[in-house]
Amino acid sequence: MSLDKTTIAKRYAKALFEIVSENGQLEDTRSELNQIRNVFTDNKGLGKILTDKGLEQAHKQGIVDILIKDASTSVQNLIKMTFDYGRMDDLTAIIDEFNDMCDLSEQLVRARVISAIPLSDEQLNRMADNFAHRLNVKKVILDSEVDDSIIGGAIIKTDSLIYDGSIQTQINQIRQRLIG
């Protein structure tokens, strides 16, 4: 039975998280992994290339050697293991899962705020502080997006929560009450 990408990512990320947490290397490892993730983001298809059975192993190994050249032992071991098991296409998912674990341990939530107009830094900071208080976490980091179709107000989305304070949603709710 083959494991899905999410299960693989959680297993690898959890193992790495536990090792580097114990050694006090969490932030350094996170930084290294995000640099490697950027390489994969900038080179679409790199994971597929590194798992392609048609490409010579020596060529793929050369690419991996470049990736791990200046990396810590923990990151080198993760990359080598994902390469050896043919899971390089899962590496960005593993890194994303690792980042999620770091955020959870730091009581940090990343969210996207969608508003009808651009928000000032002051508005974003105030909104982040209020949302952090509501979620009972230390910090919320907001990425801002403009969508004039919501008319006004804002929508805040995390991976598991949507807070919709948009005017469009309020109009729709009123419409439903009037109909129903």
TrEMBL record:
Keyword Acyltransferase: no
Principal place of residence: membrane
Subcellular location: Cell membrane; Membrane
Coiled-coil parts of chain: none
Annotated Gene3D superfamilies: N-terminal domain of the delta subunit of the F1F0-ATP synthase
Alphabetical list of SUPFAM superfamilies matching this protein: N-terminal domain of the delta subunit of the F1F0-ATP synthase
GO-annotated molecular function: proton-transporting ATP synthase activity, rotational mechanism
Cited InterPro entries: ATP_synth_OSCP/delta_N_sf, ATPase_OSCP/dsu
Keywords: ATP synthesis, Cell membrane, CF(1), Hydrogen ion transport, Ion transport, Membrane, Transport
Topology within the bilayer: Peripheral membrane protein
Gene Ontology CC entries for this record: plasma membrane; proton-transporting ATP synthase complex
One Pfam family it belongs to: OSCP
NCBIfam families given in the database record: ATP_synt_delta
Function: This protein is part of the stalk that links CF(0) to CF(1). It either transmits conformational changes from CF(0) to CF(1) or is implicated in proton conduction. F(1)F(0) ATP synthase produces ATP from ADP in the presence of a proton or sodium gradient. F-type ATPases consist of two structural domains, F(1) containing the extramembraneous catalytic core and F(0) containing the membrane proton channel, linked together by a central stalk and a peripheral stalk. During catalysis, ATP synthesis in the catalytic domain of F(1) is coupled via a rotary mechanism of the central stalk subunits to proton translocation.
Family designation: Belongs to the ATPase delta chain family.
Record's protein name: ATP synthase subunit delta
Organism: Pediococcus stilesii
Gene of this entry: atpH
